[in-house]
């Protein structure tokens, strides 16, 4: 197990490096000169780096935008996961940061439309602090003169999740005359309100609950019902079962019915085909269950 | 007193009365336009108010009093005087006897405190537990302070139940030593027992609401008391919202909201009014729960009653059950078991009385009978057991109850606007109800309450407060009333518990389909007319459109019969004979027509001069309900005549006689139609709402018709439709084309059936056109 986990971390690291390299390629080489995706992959040796060199790699990245965006992304994640804490930290940071960087931030934000277009980002390490936070989701807002960015922000999952819960609209038939009347007098079917001076009334009609006749209060209704039914049913059945001819007939009918079901299920051989011939279906789940039990025990 | 007759109000009412009798004789000729003067609802407008304060021809202790500035001492003196301050007659012996017991009531001690608060504020919330005497005494305290004979402004006291309004009015008339219907009267739907002399009027809350429709400011009243507000009936809720508005316009109108439960905080904040609480006379009540839930609560209740009878000391028992059938069943079982106990183990005697709303009043009265004496001196004590619905929870005071058995259920109305089904379901009560029930045991001495559920069920399964009726009802009638009351904005109408928007929408749409409201929700002419009838909108619309089908006389009878409880009597010991008798009146096309046949037979017997009670008994019909249907019919007829609705009939010999009636039913009930699912099936599907239903077994229908119109939906363990009549689907397309617009239907059997019928009708017409 341990070994597996380390190897997987190696894979992750290499893949990340690849991604970085790809980014580099993408940034530096014009499109027409780029080689098609995947060509020469086998020639490029995959470099495995030890854990300590990871930081040097990221530090020695030629693009300075990466670490800053990474930090901001970390902030974003924090603000999602711990909304209260991050709200304070991000505000404190934005409070402490601006004095030194305000002029540059302003200029960069005005010049660069948004940080989602990394190709235009210069090596200035200052654009990561947005000037505004969204009041709903506490995330940095794109500048107000970018309607597309704002729309994208509003449509983002993080923003949508932070919106106050809006219940689905009422299922009432909108063409009903009664509803027309009530809404004409200011009642909103989707507002989840009742009638009354302050619309404080009940929202839904009371439900009638049918009761077993003469059953005492607090007595379990279904249990008694099944018991009694069972008793009655048994009595009725006993009356029938006394007749041997009927019993035989019932048995024949029963068999026929079972046959029919079997025919329907297995008759055309589709099921066997689906399951595959000769496969033992039963043993596998059993062994797996045993395995799981062993796991749980340790 | 003589001067009162000069009162314009009285003369106008008299005139109206004589016109009525004339009209009744001429039968349908009295269509002449009814002026505002002749309208009893508007009678107060004719008063100029100057003649009210004139002296009444006798000296009264009240003469020195100043309106709304009296003290309890002054009132007590007036009550103690030898002559009746209201009539000038000497007080009877009985009066003083009752007066003594009245002075012992808990409210009596706080009369001055009440008056002080009453003077200080326009709205007052009064909390007094059952038995504190608030329903009978507070209106009288107000009477001695308002002095309505000076201003002509009456005092109204509303009650949720008709029976309560009648019986309390009688009691208060006795207490004041006046005749019922004169100084003290009552007014309930289809029955008005008041006179121009009336100063204090008990009425149902629904009746006051109907009066408000013609008098938006309630200007004939000086003080309105809403009693039993804790019950939160539909009408009381509407009245509260309405009165809250009116008090802004009419600063001289006083409102008292009376509640029997201690959670009056809600009323207090709603009205922003001071509160006065009168403690009831209560003793501690020990509460017991069952360790396990019960399988059959009726069975458990019966056993508990017998256990109490066998092992507990003297004291009466009150058992709460849910409905008539269940109560009668339990009564029978208890009586049988007690008889056996007496034979086997020398138990004391026990009298068992049922108590529910539809019980005839004289039988309701029996619950106040004394418990039976022991069989021999020193023997085991006798007791009475009352098996009641939740009537006995707050509105009735029965002394001597020491044991309460509470299974935790009551029948509650619930309405689902999505399926348009209003049903009475046996449902768990609320915690507040359970406490109220337990409280019934501690009226005379420390008592015990046996709850037939576990303590955890009490904590977990019961809601805190029972839902007010307005959240559990179809609001079509209410919306029509509110529109007529001039409420424009139904959304922001300040109700204490506003209903669900969907319920309101359904009501608006139903009224729209009935053409009572236009598409903007404004009252139409038909809507105005329909609101004049104290009926559900569907019934009212059916009645109004019946002349178009040449059968308004018959539809009037059917409407009246549908407005009273079931006229069929089916005693448990004679079910078969009762069914046979019903079969005599049966019409193959349906229950509505069968009802009509029974009514015609009843009127026939009346004409022959038969003893109607006996006749009804022999034919298993309820005399009480039939005669009240007859009374309702007379009242509705008067309203129809007032508004110029013709009373016509198709000749009975005409073969269209019953067809016309069946078609006329659809004019109001086109939204209550069901189609049979498939041939040989007993299951029907309701149109548009797609509810699967069966026809109630009480029907006379033998053939399984494909299309039926039904009067009501009954939801028990199964879904039933009751009072059903066979119709033809072509009529639906013809009578209610806007509702049966095929584009509005969802795909299904009903739509395809209706499409086929449309095609058929079109082909037939094309054939006719071709010829």
TrEMBL record, chain A:
SMART domains the record matches: G_patch (SM00443)
InterPro entries per the UniProt record, alphabetical: G_patch_dom, GPANK1
Region Disordered, annotated ranges: 1-42, 87-129, 209-241
Superkingdom of origin: Eukaryota
Domain G-patch: 174-222
UniProt feature, compositional bias: Basic and acidic residues: 225-241
Protein name, as recorded: G-patch domain-containing protein
Pfam families tied to this protein: G-patch
Species this protein is from: Humicola insolens (Soft-rot fungus)
Biased composition (Polar residues): 1-12
From TrEMBL, chain B:
Biased composition (Basic and acidic residues): 11-26, 53-73
Xref: SUPFAM superfamilies: P-loop containing nucleoside triphosphate hydrolases
UniProt KW Ubl conjugation keyword: no
Record keyword Hydrolase present: yes
Ranges for domain Helicase ATP-binding: 115-280
A matching Pfam family: HA2_C
UniProt catalytic activity: ATP + H2O = ADP + phosphate + H(+)
EC number: 3.6.4.13
Keywords recorded for this protein, A-Z: ATP-binding, Helicase, Hydrolase, mRNA processing, mRNA splicing, Nucleotide-binding
Entry-linked InterPro entries: DEAD-box_helicase_OB_fold (IPR011709), DEAD/DEAH_box_helicase_dom (IPR011545), DHX15_DEXHc (IPR044756), DNA/RNA_helicase_DEAH_CS (IPR002464), HA2_WH (IPR048333), Helicase-assoc_dom (IPR007502), Helicase_ATP-bd (IPR014001), Helicase_C-like (IPR001650)
Chain positions covered by the region annotation Disordered: 1-73
Xref: PROSITE patterns: DEAH_ATP_HELICASE, HELICASE_ATP_BIND_1, HELICASE_CTER
Domain Helicase C-terminal: from-to ranges: 301-486
Superkingdom: Eukaryota
Family: Belongs to the DEAD box helicase family. DEAH subfamily. DDX15/PRP43 sub-subfamily.
Name the UniProt record assigns to this protein: RNA helicase
Species in which this protein is naturally found: Humicola insolens (Soft-rot fungus)
Organism ancestry: Eukaryota, Fungi, Dikarya, Ascomycota, Pezizomycotina
